[in-house]
Each structure stands twice: as C-alpha cells, then as structure tokens.
Design goal:
Strand content: 5-15%
Number of helices: 15
Radius of gyration: 25 Å
Largest sheet: 7 strands, mixed
Low-confidence stretches: none
Structural class: alpha/beta
Oligomer: single chain
Mean pLDDT: 96
Bound molecules: pyridoxal-5'-phosphate
Helix content: 40-55%
Length: 486
C-alpha cells in the first residue's frame, strides 16, 4: 500500500476479477435468453435515471457486487434494448457473440493503435481485414481501407481530403482565400452528416447544393447536371459530391452510374455514403446492381450497423491514399519511428491520434461466420422483409410508400375512409407511439412528402419469422383499435 492508502488493485484482485467475469458472462447469457421478454424501448421519462444516481461520487470504494446491483436496479431500466429481436427502429446496431468476446480482448489488451510500432499486429490486422473486405465486396484491390469510428467521421475525412486534393494542399497553409469558391453536392435525402461535414469544413453551407429527388427519393440526375452547369457558369468550382447507396429515410439509391459520369466530367470527388446498406454488397446479387461504385473516390459503410460487429466500426475506403495522407499526416518528433516509411500508421488516416483496436472484432466476426455465413445473415433479413412487404401490400388498410431494396419497409396505416393528410399523420404518429409504449416492439418514422411514415427495419441478429408474424398482428390490432376505439 502507498502512503496515501492507494493500492494498485484496491478494488479487485485477479481472483475477484475471475469470479466477477464468470458471473458476468452468465448474466450476459441470461440477458440474451430473456431479451425478447423485456420492453424494447425504455419506458422511462426524462430525469428518472438521474434521480436514482447519487449527486456526488463515492469517496471510498464500493464493492463490485453493489455496483452491479445498482446497474440492474437504476441503469438497466433506462436501457433501450437495441439487440431485441423486435428492435425495428432507426437502423440496427448489430452485435454478436464473437464480436462481444473480441471486445473483451480489445479492452483487456487496451492498446492504442496510432502507429504501427504501438502495436504492429493492430496495424497489420487492420490492413488485412480491409483487404478482405475489398475482396468480399468485389472492389478494386488498389483501394485503401481503414477503420474509423463513424460514417460521419469518414464523410468529413473525405471532404477534407477532397479540398486538399483540389487546392493542391494550398488550403493547409493559406486557408481557402486564394482558392476559387468550391461547391459541393448531395441529395435532399442525404444524411445530416454530409451537411455537418460541410459546416465543419469551413466551406460554408451556402456552397452546399441540395439536389431534388425523384419519385423513388433518389437523386435526380438532371437537376444535378443543371446545378453543376449553373455553378460552373457562375465561376464556382465544383469540388465534392456524396451519393447515397441506401438513404437513411428509405434506403433509396442514387443513380450512381450517371452521377459518376458527371463527377468525372467536372473533376468532382465522388464519395459514396453506404453507411447502412453497404453491408449488403458482400452478396454478389446486390453488388452486381451497382457496377459503377468502382468509379467512386471514396466510400464509407458501417459493419457496426448491419454486419454483426459492435459499435464502433466504420470502414472508409479511398482510392487516392496520398490525398488522405497529405491532409491528415502529422509527425511531431515524439511520434517519429524508424518504420514510418514502410508501414501504415493509421493516425495519419483520419482525425484522432489515439485509436482503439477495432480490427480484432471484425477479424473474429469474419472468421467465426465465414463469408458464406455473413451473406446468409444479410439474405435472411432481406427475405424476411420481402415476406412482410407482401403482407403489407396485400392489406388494403395499409400503404407502402417506398421501394424495399434491402430490409427497410416504409408504410403507413391508411383506412379507406380517411384521406386527410393531417388526420392520417396524427393517426400514424399515435400508432407508432402506442406500439412503442407497449414495449412489444420499437419502430421510428420518417416523412415522405409530408406524409408521416413508419419505418420498420428488419436487422436484429435474433429476429425470426415468428417475431415478424407477431409484430404484424400487433401492428394491425393496434391500428384498428386506434381507428375504431369502440
Ligand atoms: C447511419 C447513417 C450515417 C451516420 O452513421 P454514423 O456512423 O453514426 O456517423 C450516415 N449516413 C447514412 C446513410 C446512415 O444511414
């Protein structure tokens, strides 16, 4: 013990750790076993968790058992269960047993993966799993990949690289004052992370062109072409564009081939945001639909959404590695190592210096499932979605409002006698709230042409046909009860 009373393992020695860890694993197993019986969405109101938590931290050690009891009584009720089989909200955030176990290793090794030297295996495994992904997705082996924390971060990284590349890195010393005024593009359905990237980049939101969408909510290429032409005529310099492969609202797909042609003609950096749907590209039948993704300059997708891998794990692919390194590399004397010229120092591939060892969980997932297992996982969800889509389409009281290219269904309740949009919107909002309050499922909404639409995304690791049959019955019963309260 130190003079001030501190001991290195004040709270837990090796034996205690072992005991607690085994108990915790049992608890986790039981959690997954009983997960379907828990309310999906936490029913708590704002402040209810806070009210349970002491206002000041404990001055003296509390034993782990007591901490764990408090976790169960005060914290767990405030958890929305993202791994619940009837979690249909937003997009899923998959986990899986191999991924969870790998995360245990990662947090035990607790290494920083900023440089090759700070853990050679982390750097080389990250390179290899990204190369595996290029193969799995039939993308050019000349592309480079790295793991970032989120799609938002990767999209921002892409924009900054594009600015550097276009300005021949003058921006790094001089800012943009001697550069032409750059313009950037995405559709009105693009994710808010695109707008955020533009905001943060210093280009100014006035330079962001939000292009109209067509009836399928995909970018309208004619509007894009006109917009670019107009910008060029006015002396602007078109710089960067984000095309969506699976929008957040409805998984709409921008016409990548025609967009790629326009980008090539005008020297625009084409970034593809496939944050959610990108995982489907490991299946040849999906990949074949998007031949022209190889025309992109960068692409992001999130295994932490729909590929069995715990958050955070976002894959950023880039064609021009120099543009990335010229923009992000920083080598102060204290980070210089002898191997810098022959290895990947991933600190130079993005914003943060410190990085978690995220490649490990991806590697465990790839090995434990195999490519075939991963493909089967994706196909199962898409097949389940097709089955439910057919039921919705066959029911005259319901209306589907967007195509279902993957596993997200956008629909609303629309009894024949109601046509007023405000009444329908209120009815569907009430339907969603009632379903979510029931604890039986969790879904969220979007607006399509001002129409309130329920989004039902089938991406939970444990979801089965039985869960969907139950959910569909519950949705119908709740809808009929609301429309006809007697
Ligand atoms: C989820 C999503 C994002 C944001 O993902 P993060 O990794 O949370 O930043 C961006 N684009 C699309 C299309 C998404 O679905």
């Amino acid at each position: 013990m130190h003079a001030n009373g501190y001991t290195e393992n004040n709270t837990m020695d090796n034996k205690d750790f072992c005991l607690q860890a085994h108990q915790l694993v049992d608890w986790i197993e039981n959690y997954f076993k009983t997960l379907a019986d828990r309310p999906v969405k936490s029913p708590l109101k704002p402040g209810e968790v806070l009210a349970q938590l002491p206002e000041s931290p404990p001055q003296y050690p509390v034993d782990f058992d007591a901490c764990f009891k408090a976790f169960e009584s005060s914290i767990l009720p405030g958890i929305t269960h993202w791994q619940h089989p009837k979690f249909f909200a937003y997009f899923p955030a998959n986990s899986s047993y191999p991924s969870i176990l790998a995360e245990m290793l990662t947090s035990s090794l607790a290494v920083q993966c900023m440089s090759w030297q700070t853990s050679p295996a982390a750097s080389e495994l990250e390179q290899r799993v990204c190369e595996w992904l290029l193969k799995m997705m039939q993308l050019p082996s000349s592309w480079h990949g790295c793991i970032q924390s989120t799609a938002s971060e990767a999209t921002f990284t892409s924009l900054l690289s594009a600015i550097g590349h276009k300005s021949q890195y003058k921006n790094i010393e001089q800012g943009l004052k001697d550069c032409p005024t750059y313009t950037v593009y995405c559709s009105k359905e693009a994710h808010s992370s695109v707008e955020k990237a533009v905001k943060l980049s210093g280009l100014g939101l006035a330079q962001l062109r939000l292009i109209d969408t067509d009836a399928q909510l995909a970018m309208d290429v004619e509007s894009l072409a006109k917009c670019i032409e107009n910008d060029v005529n006015q002396g602007f310099s078109p710089l960067w564009l984000t095309a969506c492969l699976g929008t957040t609202g409805t998984t709409a797909i921008d016409p990548l081939a025609s967009i790629a042609k326009l980008c090539k003609r005008h020297g625009i950096w084409m970034h593809i945001d496939a944050a959610y749907a990108g995982s489907a590209l490991i299946c040849p039948e999906f990949r074949q639909q998007f031949e022209s993704i190889v025309e992109a300059d960068s692409l992001v997708f999130n295994p932490h959404k729909w590929l069995l891998t715990n958050f955070d794990c976002s894959i950023y692919f880039i064609k021009n590695k120099e543009a990335l390194l010229n923009t992000f590399a920083m080598t102060p004397p204290y980070l210089k190592t002898d191997e810098d010229d022959e290895v990947n120092n991933y600190r130079d591939w993005g914003i943060p210096l410190g990085r978690r060892f995220r490649a490990l969980k991806l590697w465990f997932v790839f090995c434990c499932y195999g490519v075939q297992g991963l493909q089967a996982f994706i196909r199962n969800h898409c097949q389940l979605a097709k089955t439910l889509q057919q039921k919705i389409d066959a029911d005259p009281a319901f209306e589907r409002l967007a195509p279902v290219p993957f596993n997200l269904i956008c629909f609303r309740y629309k009894p024949a006698r109601i046509s007023d949009i405000d009444t329908l919107n209120a009815l569907n909002k009430a339907l969603m709230d009632a379903l979510n309050a029931s604890g039986k499922m969790y879904l969220t909404h979007t607006l399509i042409d001002d129409r309130f639409v329920l989004r039902l995304c089938i991406g939970a690791v444990s979801v089965t046909q039985t869960h969907l049959d139950e959910a569909w019955e519950q949705i119908k019963q709740q809808a009929f009860a609301l429309a006809d309260p007697n």
